[in-house]
Write a structure and sequence with these properties.
Structural class: alpha+beta
Strand order of the largest sheet: 1-2-5
Distance between the termini: 63 Å
Order of helices and strands: HEEHEEHE
Radius of gyration: 23 Å
Shape: elongated
Largest sheet: 3 strands, antiparallel
Mean pLDDT: 79
Length: 133
Amino acid sequence: MKKKFLPFLLTLALLLAILPISALALPEGVPTSIEAPKIVSIVVKNTEDTGQPYLVLEIFVPQSVIDLDASRPTDGMVLIDYYANIDNQGFEKADGGYLETLMDPEAAVPGKTNTFYLHYYPDDEGTFEEVLI
């Protein structure tokens, strides 16, 4: 009994190790990895009307990401998600959306290629004793 069980167990372990590799196969034209967009700078500003603080992020989007969104090899699109780590409590999704909304021509940084401004407004809890950014 033990002699038959060991080959069966090894075969099962081998099958389980091979199956996830085939399940991760990507459609043709979709890269296995791409360079991530990068935050170039962050500046804190205040709104003119209320003086509420907000962040202006300057984000560089690699050409490979722009090319992928333009070609859309599987009729999909590139989505970008923003994650925040508040007080070292771990990263949580803060916002996100289509890449094309980030790359609005009006948000382009003058004189810089593939670089765009993103305005991020903190949560107003009503007292401004605590600003969640």
